[in-house]
Amino acid sequence: MRIPAHSVCTAIRDDIVAGVHGRGSRLTEELLARRYGVSRVPVREALRTLEAEGFVVTRRHAGACVAEPTEQEAADLLETRTLLEPLGASRAAGRRTEAHLKVLRGLVRLGQERARQGTGEELRSLGGWFHDTLARAADSPSLTALLTQLRHKIAWMYVVEVPVGPVEYWAEHGAITDAVARGDGARARALMTLHIERSAAAHRLRFTSGDGRSERVRNAQHPVNTAGPRR
User: Where does the record place the HTH gntR-type domain (predicted)?
Assistant: First the structure.
């Protein structure tokens, strides 16, 4: 059975974000095909997609390599997020479904509960889920794709710490959800702008060491064509 290129792309991207493939390291089709248990064809297609996304660069005499973003490029990502996420919130206010609202409200309730308990790692996951759901509620495939790519690249370049005042942080999520539920696009946009600006302080660059490279955080292989979800 031929493994879809997008599945291979997701697997390689996840490992780049996690630091398994370090910045500047070579990505040969043969080794990647062996690692993920696929043929070279979907690997080749995946590398083209990842190059378009900015995770991979092609170098003379070296071939495909993991990109090495500068601090300025990383800063630009956060600035871009401050422009696009408020737009997404505004669009969501006019296009969300009841299903989207149910998920958003459930996440806010759970996030507020965990914030009071001080469960840091789970708060990060819940926050990502909240922003992902809000992006999908905008009902704009191109905007959702841009926001998803932004989140992947920010996760690659930054360590996101639990914000100071997590209860207030989740109260902001609740206020955004209320504005979206009322269909108030202007308020949803304004609240999201403030939320993104405040949360920027929780971001710490991963690659501030002397050689500019990130530390590898895991090294387990992840065959793409095995049953069950990847973790």
Answer: 2-69
Confirm if 16 and 156 have CB atoms less than 8 A apart.
yes
For residue 222, give the nearest of 41, 65, 7 by alpha carbon: 7
| CB count in 10 Å sphere of residue 23 | 19
> 5-18 and 29-36 helices cross at what angle (nearest 10)?
100
DSSP state of 224: T
Question: Given pLDDT bands bounded at 50, 70 and 90, which one contains residue 17?
Answer: very high
**pTM, rounded to two decimals:** 0.79
Closest CA relative to residue 5, chosen from 47, 66, 64, 67 = 47
The 8 Å CB, 24+ separation contacts for 170-177 are 170/108, 170/111, 170/112, 170/115, 170/123, 171/112, 172/198, 173/107, 173/108, 173/111, 173/127, 173/130, 174/108, 174/112, 176/89, 176/134, 177/101, 177/104, 177/105, 177/108
